[in-house]
């Protein structure tokens, strides 16, 4: 009997992340200034990812929902210019992404069976790391307006795609140089992200290959035992 997996369905998460990346680029290029629309799209895209969380994980579902609700409310107050709650919004979205990263990484790395869902999960972790760091950079811009060369200080939603672009360029260690950290603390987070990006790829590949080999060994062992049983019966 096939064992029912309690892992999250990472296809929802992958679709949500890719959708968020594309839509943010699309809005940045064609509809610059639509701050409320972009925030709504971020909330919607991340909300879709919750659909893939296993039904038994009630705590995680409620936690993700609370963080998105907090981000939506604080963002609305900020855009209505009632009170500036930009940091609350950014931290809520950052904790959402970090929580997703933690649960996804645990399911991908600690497994005895490599399925298509696990491989999709490993890609999701990489995308989550890049997005998480983009919010870390946006938080730094709120705290230190001159934190980066190439990014002007303005409402964080206007800098969202620039921060995402810089984060993934750093994560992949491409480093075009059009955006660069100007202060020591941002520089610290930049080289930490570069290190994490390189180590994650190495560890992920090693982990998946090791699990795959172990999976193949078990499969061959089961086939051998089956053949032996048939020979004994013969």
From TrEMBL:
Keywords: Ion channel, Ion transport, Membrane, Transmembrane, Transmembrane helix, Transport. It comes from Photobacterium sanguinicancri. InterPro entries: K_chnl_dom. SUPFAM superfamilies: Voltage-gated potassium channels. This is Potassium channel family protein. It comes from the Bacteria. One of its GO terms (biological process) is monoatomic ion transmembrane transport. The chain crosses the membrane at residues 12-31, 37-54, 66-99, 119-139, 160-176, 188-209. Residues 140-209 form the Potassium channel domain. The keyword Transmembrane applies. Pfam families: Ion_trans_2.
């Amino acid at each position: 009997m096939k064992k029912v997996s309690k892992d999250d369905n990472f296809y929802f998460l992958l679709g949500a992340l890719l959708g968020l990346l594309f839509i943010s680029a699309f809005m940045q290029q064609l509809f610059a200034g639509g701050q409320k629309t972009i925030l709504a799209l971020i909330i919607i895209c991340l909300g879709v990812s919750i659909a893939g969380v296993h039904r038994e994980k009630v705590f995680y579902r409620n936690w993700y929902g609370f963080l998105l609700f907090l981000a939506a409310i604080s963002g609305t107050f900020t855009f209505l210019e009632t009170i500036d709650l930009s940091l609350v919004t950014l931290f809520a979205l950052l904790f959402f992404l970090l929580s997703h990263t933690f649960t996804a990484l645990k399911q991908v790395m600690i497994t005895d069976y490599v399925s298509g869902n696990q491989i999709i999960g490993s890609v999701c972790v990489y995308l989550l790391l890049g997005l998480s760091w983009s919010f870390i950079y946006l938080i730094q811009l709120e705290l230190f307006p001159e934190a980066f060369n190439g990014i002007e200080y303005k409402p964080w939603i206007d800098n969202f795609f620039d921060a995402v672009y810089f984060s993934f360029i750093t994560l992949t260690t491409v480093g075009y140089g059009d955006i660069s950290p100007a202060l020591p603390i941002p520089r610290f987070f930049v080289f930490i992200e570069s290190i994490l990006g390189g180590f994650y790829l190495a560890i992920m590949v090693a982990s998946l290959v090791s699990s795959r080999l172990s999976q193949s060994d078990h499969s061959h062992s089961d086939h051998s035992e089956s053949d032996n049983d048939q020979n004994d019966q013969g």
